[in-house]
Structure formats: C-alpha cells, structure tokens
Specification:
About 30% of the residues lie in helices and about 20% in strands. The chain is α/β, with parallel strands linked by helices. The structure holds N-carbamoyl-L-aspartate and zinc ion (2 copies). Keywords: Hydrolase, Metal-binding, Pyrimidine biosynthesis, Zinc.
C-alpha cells in the first residue's frame, strides 16, 4: 500500500507516523438534518498536519453483497462494479437461489447488467434450506461459479422465510459434505426466538448454534456475516484462524443503536442484525483495525425501495454500496490504522476463500464529495446510507488518475 501525505509525496504505509485520532460516535441523523462527521477542533488541526491525503491500495472485494434482480440490479450494480473486483452475491431473492442451476442463471443476469468494459466478478452462493441435498453441494462445487452456501435461520431477516428451521436436525449431512468439498458456510447469526431480546439474538446464536456447530464440524469453514457484538469478536478470536472469519459492515463500525432514534425514527439505519450499543461498536472497530486476518470487508449493501423503508412496517437493510469504501477508510483513519486498511479490504477475504488477490489498484483521495439523496431505478428510488451528506474519501480507479 502506498500513502501520500500530500498528492505529490508518496510514502509506504509503515513509514507513516501514527496520528492522534479520536474514535467516537458523532451525533447522527436527526430528521432532515444532514449527517456530518465532526472532530474536536484541536485534534483535527493536529491530525491534519500528519494525515495522508491519498492512498493507493489493491482493488478491494465485497464479501457480502445484495444485488437483487431486474431494475434494481441494473441500478445498483454499477456502484459495486466501479471499485470492487469481486463480490459474494447473497441468494435471498424472491424466490431464493437454492440450486446451482439457478445460481448459474442469476450470474448470467448479473453479467448482462454490468457496465461495458467492467471486469467485476460475481461469486455466487446458494440459499440453504431444510431440504438442500449433499448432491447439490457437489454440483455447486463442480460448477466453478458457486463459492459458498448461506444459512438464514428461518424468519431471521429479509426473505429468510425459506431458511433453515433446525440446523442440527435437518442440515448435518449437507454441512458434512460442505466440509469435505471445502465450501464455506456463511451465517446470518441470529436466533429467531421471539422471547429472546432483539439485541441479544447474535450472542444467543453464538452460544446455542455456532459454538456447538464449530465443535461438531471443526473442518467446516464458516464466515460469521455482519458481526455486531463484542461477543462475536470474542467468538471469532477463540476459533482457529482460517476456519472461522467474519465480515463487518460500515454501519456496524460507524453507528451505534442511538442512530436509530436520533431526532425521530430513522428507517435508513435499520438493518439486521440491528445496531448495538457503543461498547460493541468499539470492540468491532478495535478488532478490525488491529490487523487481524480474521476480518474482511462485507458491506451487506441491501437496497430496498424508499417506499418499503419509509412506511409503517419498513424493511431491514441499508444501501451502502456507493459510500462503503469512503466509510471504511474513515474508520481506519480515525483509529490511526490506515496502514491496516488494505489487508481488510483486499487481502483477508481472498486469503480466507483460497482465491488470488486482485492485481489492479484503486486510489483513495481526500476530496470531499456529496452523496446523492436518492438513486432512481425503473420503478422507484433507493436512499443510500448517509444520504445527501458530504464524505471525505473519494475512491477512483488508478487509471483514472
Ligand atoms: N441486513 C439486512 O438488514 N437486510 C438484508 C438481509 C441480511 O443480510 O440479513 C437484505 O437482504 O435486505
Ligand atoms: Zn444477514
Ligand atoms: Zn446481507
């Protein structure tokens, strides 16, 4: 990774002096008030003196992405394809992608919707159900286009109603086949028991499902998707490196649960697992910026039409694809860990999946830019995370420089 302290001077990242930085939750998202990052002025002046203005990093991948289909796919795909080399494509369509044959078709739809000249690669996944067969896993492996299988506990999140009702009762033969074929299991890690408090669902899932699963099938590769708690961090750290890893979203690094209620109910920061309290956010930031190889970028960018977010029973999901790279960079900058950014965005994911790292580069420049208020699609519009606000880091392709 190269770091430029001004646009003309380039240092390698490890030579760069760590700056004093603050990591705190800025007051967020009052109704109709634009989100703005604020630093304490004294620290800001100090930080400005040493902070780099430009970074060149290996092209990142997104290891957790919802692209949907039809008009929404066409509208959102360019935002991911612009800067990411590859993405793990989530299978929770309506109806879900439960077979390799359907994954192959869906992949074709995505490739067709790509902007001309894009080399973005969709890495497909299967949606695990109570009836998925070990045979399907062999087909998936043989296809060369399916890279993982996704576990949605039935009822846990958007379009999860066909998900698994009893993992140990119904899915062990499939999971054993996945371990044999080295197909990773991606996990939405929340229990669905209505008696369990929403904020505890990840921890209870770890205790009652994930820990026993790792004990039973230590060879199965598992990615705990979109982790939100220090319990998840502790769990991931307790497992063998290379067997259990986690993706982390921009929202769980930047926001705590206050953001949901700041100045009124805020549907555009509602996602699952729900935002947690500040101590959990801090634990995730520390884990991710520590340089550990167990964590990698997964935006969980999850577009829903504005109407389905701003209504009496709004959908869970935050559309972050256009802003994610700016936000991750911000998080690492605030933690004084810009030298660890590239491993998180571009190395740890492919290393875990056993895929080559990307060879092309992107440039992240400090150049304030305004997030559009909405993005139109064929039958509606999508409100992005941090709608209408100004972000500091602007990503661009190296050859655009
Ligand atoms: N994260 C979300 O809140 N929503 C996702 C589903 C998921 O990843 O759980 C979606 O598909 O909308
Ligand atoms: Zn999920
Ligand atoms: Zn998701």
């Amino acid at each position: 990774m190269q770091v430029a302290v001004n646009p003309t001077t380039t240092l390698s990242a490890h030579e760069h002096p760590k700056h004093n930085s603050v990591s705190f939750l800025r007051p967020s998202l009052p109704c109709r008030v634009r989100f703005r990052f604020s630093h304490r002025p004294a620290l800001r002046a100090n930080a400005m003196a040493t902070q780099p203005q430009q970074l060149t990093i290996t092209r990142p991948d997104d290891w957790h992405l919802h692209l949907r289909d039809g008009g929404v796919l066409e509208a959102v795909l360019p935002h991911s394809a612009r800067h990411f080399g590859r993405a793990i494509i989530m299978p929770n369509l309506k109806p879900p992608v439960t077979t390799t044959a359907r994954a192959v078709e869906y992949r074709e739809e995505i490739l067709k919707a790509l902007p001309a000249g894009s080399s973005f690669q969709p890495l497909m996944t299967l949606y695990l159900t109570d009836n998925t067969s070990p045979e399907e896993i062999k087909l998936a492996r043989k296809s060369g286009v399916v890279f993982a299988v996704k576990l949605y506990p039935a009822g846990a999140t958007t379009n999860s109603q066909y998900g698994v009702t009893d993992i140990f009762g119904k899915c062990l033969p499939v999971l054993e086949e996945m371990a044999r074929q080295e197909v990773p299991l991606l996990v939405h890690g929340e229990v669905t028991d209505l008696h369990v408090d929403t904020f505890d669902r990840e921890k209870v899932f770890i205790d009652t499902i994930l820990a026993p699963l790792v004990q039973k099938l230590p060879q199965l590769k598992i990615v705990m998707e979109h982790i939100t708690t220090m319990d998840a961090v502790n769990f991931v750290e307790s497992c063998e490196e290379g067997h259990v890893a986690a993706t982390v979203t921009p929202q769980h690094l930047l926001l705590n649960r206050n953001a949901l209620f700041q100045g009124g109910l805020q549907p555009h920061v509602y996602c699952l697992p729900i935002l947690k309290r500040e101590t959990h956010r801090q634990a995730i930031v520390s884990a991710v910026t520590s340089g550990s190889r167990r964590y990698f970028l997964g935006t969980d960018s999850a577009p829903h039409d504005k109407q389905n977010k701003e209504c009496s029973c709004g959908c869970a999901g935050i559309y972050s694809a256009p802003v994610a790279l700016s936000l991750y960079t911000k998080v690492f900058e605030e933690a004084g860990a810009l030298d660890k950014l590239e491993a998180f965005t571009s190395f740890n994911g492919p290393d875990f999946y056993g895929l080559p790292r990307n060879t092309s580069k992107i440039v992240l420049r400090k150049s304030p830019w305004k997030v559009p208020v909405t993005y139109k699609h064929s039958s509606g519009e999508i409100v992005p995370m941090f709608t209408g606000s100004t972000l500091e880091w602007l990503p661009s392709d190296q050859d655009e420089e």
